[in-house]
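Exam review. A common question shows you a sequence with its structure tokens and asks you to describe the fold in words. Practice with the pair below. Do the first one on your own.
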Amino acid sequence: MGKLAVQKYFSLMMLIITFLLMIFTFVGLYGGNVPPAGNAARAMLVYALPILILGNIVFLIYWLVLRKFHWMIMPLITILCCIPYTGTLYKFGSLDESADSKPGIKLVTYNVARFSLETSGFMAQDILSEMKKQKVDIVCFQEYSDFAGDKKNSDSYKEYFPYHAQGQSDMMIYSRYPITNSKNIKFEMTNNSAMWAEINVNDNIYRVYNVHLETTGLNSTLRRATKMANNGLEVQNNALINAIYGNYTLGMIARSGQANMLAMDMRESNHPIIVCGDFNDVPYSYVYNTMLGDKIDGFKECGSGFMHTFRGGKKMVRIDYIFHDKELEGLSYYKKDLSYSDHYPVFMKIATK
């Protein structure tokens, strides 16, 4: 085979890869529009979108360097179509430094990982100090624990947050404004749950949802695989892949059902809705789209820079969110780099009437 034939063959392979990248990226962009049950492979591509977009950028540069401008169109169009997705991860601009001085309520969602089972109450107190510092009005805790030795964290929080609503054992909403009503929402066959509290802020009622959806189960699968290998048991690659794929699939299906249940509950509200919580899912997924509905993603509205909310290992993903109804207006949205949990707390200031 001559040199020219080799070059043509290589160019053909690059063209095929470019085309496949474009197809997979578009499938990923719209993978969150269908329920994961029966569409697991399509739904899984949503998780690969950052890698797929990076691949398109590489091939855009590749065809640009070769001056193959007609082939460059494929990755260029694909990247342009991904702009709304990248807006859920990165927001140009800076935060409104004057937001705290404007009328409104500040909320935070925070998965505190049971305060690392710390018994002295030190960690819970440090988090309370940060809430005071940030002038928070409403806190939505997931994986909350009320016990710190022989004391209750709720006893120490009530001085600053005089009102609270307890959900399932690990769900809590604290508020500086009166809570007029609340409801627990239990999911079947899981320890995860959700709740809401209707809060009276200057004679205006807001329904605040606190949500903790099904976990992925990936870490437990990897731990089991590591344990098997350490015990001298052979771990087949395909078996491990099937286990990971199976866990993710089951998690996606469970979360989608939980999201559908919450979306139906939200339709019954007669008050403006604010949704806070740990969704255990990424932007553009079916869960994200279902929970968002016709509401506004606070980060896209008034966030700044790169947003990831999970700090465990090297998985820089955004899985904690604050959404709100369109009739409300966001003023600021940010996270704090606190090390008390494997999640970062997410803060949002919302203007009030």
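Now try the second one, then compare your answer with the model answer below.
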Amino acid sequence: MNKTISMSIRVSEAELDLLKEAARLEAYASYSEFIRRTALIEANDIVEKNKRKNALQRGEK
């Protein structure tokens, strides 16, 4: 069973307005959904980059 965890972030009003605008432009249901999906994409990219770096350091392809 997947457990859902809630988290919060602090942003300025200008940052919030920017996030809302970006979410609207990308047709997300809400700006929180935009933030969640964008953060997950970025996190996945970082993890994959780290895995490739470690594999190269070990001499793997």
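Model answer, second protein: The chain has a mean pLDDT of 93. The chain has two helices and no strands. Full marks require stating both points clearly.
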